[in-house]
């Protein structure tokens, strides 16, 4: 207490010191005193009020504790009285056992009396129920069945309550109502039959379907009520729960599966298009069924059944199973295409699940794929392998067919421009087109793969085509009388090369995207090279054919017979013109090359005759006659044979000194000064060569003679 007083005094001193720090504050001492007095009075008043409140609370608490003590004493006395009464009532309860048994018997008898009418009329109700089921009056039949089951279940429950271990009485009741379970099963069969035909029934007699659903809903409510009672009494009547709603969905699921499987009307042996027909029937049936379910069946079922959603799931699952079964079969290439096209495209298209009549309930984006990516990949691998074999076989067969045409006695057909051709390019690229169109129905990736495959096989095919054309030529050379239309068919082979080129470019442009083409090599340069080689070899063989016919007449050139008036050049020109009537049916650019090469070969052969020293002019008259004849023939051949050395060297830079020597020997009048001029001209060499110049003299071999020997 003293410590508290000291702390209070110290605090007061500090407060007073704080108030009287300046001299002018001394005038306010009285004011400060009154203010502190008021504060003191206020604090004392609050303390008194708080203490009084605490005292009132303590007084109230003591009063309540006193009352509680009295209550506890009263309860203690009451418990003592209850204990005494309980001990006295044990004997009384034991003496009421007979009363309890009487109450149970009374309850059983009351239940029996309540169901007495039904008990005695069970056989009659069973017959009526059976008749109603046979008549299709399912609702009335179910009402009577419910009455029978209610009577049976009520009696069995009372028996269970009285003596759950008495199986004899339970069996007796069950036996008496034995027909009830049979009626229930029979009614269920009728319900399932209606559900199996529900898609037809809902259009013809929706009331019947509604009745079936009402019956199922009744049974579901009874099942729930019995299961709730089971939690309290552990009693379950026989045949419960029926789970007819669950069975209903099982029946619908089985019906959907059967409907999908039953759409296959044909087999591969009876119809090559069996799979296409099968898939089209599935598409039509599923679409029609789902439209009916969406527009009609949903009106016959409670919303919580979600009947359309469940049916959609059933159809999708059934289709998944069926597609997997089909995929596991040993399918041919066209069947694989049909299956994949249907699974990947048709199924989600507007022709089926994407149909506007199914929107918005069906969202194709949420549907799981009918075939897994692995299965699709395996099918594509099988398809590509089979297609490869088929293309090889088709190309081989097409070539064999074309070869048979080569030996025909009639000329090949001509196109609208008059160029000879065979059907080979059209057959080959029609086959390619068909396979590419089919692949495009599945995916862009498969289309590209098929195009690459076609071009790869085309490359190999062209090598065989080249070999066969060579064999065709060799066979003809062994007997030039056979085949009769060798020239015309060789022209057709040459033209086919140009057609192949154009078709390859067209095929790539049509079926290959630019970005894909840039990222891969499809062997176009290689194929162009092979085709050019075939065409070049064909042109060469045709020219060889020409010059075989001209050989005898070319040998007459620059001989005494020629000088005396042979018409060899006339025959040569007529023969060449005759051949070129056929060569006119060669397509550009091969025709242009062929014409140039033929002209060059005629000139070369003419010059070769000049260079071979077959004749040497003996007199100026002979030289004049020979020169005039050569000028006329050069005009016929559209070629001017210049004998001025400077002109020859400048116009034909591939001319050699032995060629000049042969020409001088032919003239037979070269002086020594002329010979010296020739040496100087040759030493100067040719002027700049034209890049488009086609060599002529390079292929002409001259017998042993040169300018050096000539000048000696």
From TrEMBL:
Molecular-function GO terms, alphabetical: SNARE binding
Example of a GO cellular component annotation carried by this entry: exocyst
Family listed: Belongs to the SEC6 family.
PANTHER family: EXOCYST COMPLEX COMPONENT 3, EXOCYST COMPLEX COMPONENT SEC6-RELATED
Lineage: Eukaryota, Metazoa, Chordata, Craniata, Vertebrata
Protein name, as recorded: Exocyst complex component 3
Pfam families the record matches: Sec6
GO biological process, one term: exocytosis
């Amino acid at each position: 207490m003293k410590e508290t007083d000291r702390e209070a005094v110290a605090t007061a001193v500090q407060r007073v010191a704080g108030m009287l720090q300046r001299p002018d504050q001394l005038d306010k001492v009285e004011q400060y005193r009154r203010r502190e007095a008021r504060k003191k009075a206020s604090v004392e008043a609050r303390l008194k009020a708080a203490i009084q409140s605490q005292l009132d609370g303590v007084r109230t608490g003591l009063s309540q504790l006193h009352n509680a003590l009295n209550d506890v004493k009263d309860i203690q006395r009451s418990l003592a009285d209850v204990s005494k009464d309980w001990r006295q009532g044990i004997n009384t309860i034991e003496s009421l056992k007979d009363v309890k048994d009487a109450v149970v018997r009374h309850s059983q008898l009351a239940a029996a009396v309540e169901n007495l009418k039904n008990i005695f009329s069970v056989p009659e109700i069973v017959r009526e129920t059976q008749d109603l089921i046979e008549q299709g009056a399912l609702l009335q039949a179910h009402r009577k069945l419910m009455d029978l089951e209610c009577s049976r279940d009520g009696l069995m429950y009372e028996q269970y309550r009285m003596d759950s271990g008495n199986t004899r009485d339970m069996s007796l009741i069950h036996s008496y109502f034995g027909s009830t379970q049979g009626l229930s099963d029979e009614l269920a069969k009728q319900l399932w039959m209606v559900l199996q035909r529900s898609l037809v029934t809902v259009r013809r007699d929706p009331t019947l379907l509604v009745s079936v659903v009402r019956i199922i809903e009744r049974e579901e409510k009874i099942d729930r009520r019995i299961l709730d009672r089971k939690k309290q009494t552990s009693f379950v009547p026989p045949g419960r729960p029926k789970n007819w709603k669950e069975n209903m969905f099982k029946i619908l699921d089985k019906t959907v599966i059967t409907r999908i499987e039953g759409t296959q009307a044909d087999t591969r042996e009876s119809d090559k298009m069996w799979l296409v027909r099968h898939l089209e029937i599935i598409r039509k049936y599923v679409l029609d069924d789902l439209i009916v379910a969406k527009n009609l069946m949903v009106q016959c079922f409670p919303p919580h059944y979600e009947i359309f959603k469940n049916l959609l799931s059933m159809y999708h699952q059934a289709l998944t199973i069926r597609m997997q079964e089909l995929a596991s079969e040993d399918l041919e290439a066209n069947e694989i295409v049909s299956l994949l096209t249907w699974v990947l495209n048709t199924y989600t298209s507007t022709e089926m699940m994407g149909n506007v009549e199914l929107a918005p309930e069906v969202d194709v984006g949420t549907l799981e794929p009918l075939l897994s990516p692995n299965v699709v990949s395996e099918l594509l691998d099988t398809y590509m392998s089979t297609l490869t074999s088929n293309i090889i076989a088709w190309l081989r067969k097409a070539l064999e067919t074309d070869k048979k045409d080569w030996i025909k006695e009639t000329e090949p057909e001509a196109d609208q421009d008059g160029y000879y051709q065979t059907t080979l390019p059209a057959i080959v690229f029609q086959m390619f087109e068909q396979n590419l169109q089919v692949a495009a129905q599945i995916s862009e990736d498969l289309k590209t793969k098929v195009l690459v495959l076609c071009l790869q096989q085309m490359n190999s095919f062209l090598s065989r085509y080249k070999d066969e054309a060579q064999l065709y030529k060799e066979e003809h050379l062994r007997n030039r009388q056979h085949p009769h239309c060798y020239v015309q068919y060789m022209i057709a082979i040459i033209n086919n090369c140009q057609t192949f080129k154009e078709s390859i470019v067209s095929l790539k442009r049509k079926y290959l995207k630019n970005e894909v083409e840039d990222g891969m090599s499809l062997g176009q340069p290689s194929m162009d090279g092979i085709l050019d080689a075939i065409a070049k070899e064909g042109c060469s063989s045709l020219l060889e054919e020409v010059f075989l016919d001209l050989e005898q007449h070319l040998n007459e050139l620059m001989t005494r017979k020629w000088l005396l008036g042979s018409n060899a050049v006339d025959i040569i020109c007529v023969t060449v013109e005759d051949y070129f009537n056929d060569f006119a049916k060669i397509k550009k650019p091969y025709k242009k090359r062929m014409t140039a090469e033929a002209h060059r070969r005629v000139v070369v052969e003419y010059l070769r005759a000049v260079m071979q020293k077959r004749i040497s002019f003996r007199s100026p008259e002979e030289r004049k006659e020979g020169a005039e004849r050569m000028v006329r023939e050069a005009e016929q051949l559209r070629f001017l044979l210049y004998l001025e050395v400077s002109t020859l060297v400048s116009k034909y830079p591939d001319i050699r000194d032995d060629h000049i020597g042969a020409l001088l020997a032919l003239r037979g009048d070269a002086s020594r000064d002329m010979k010296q001029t020739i040496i100087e001209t040759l030493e100067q060499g040719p002027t700049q060569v034209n890049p488009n110049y086609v060599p002529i003299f390079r292929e002409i071999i001259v017998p042993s003679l040169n300018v050096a020997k000539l000048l000696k």
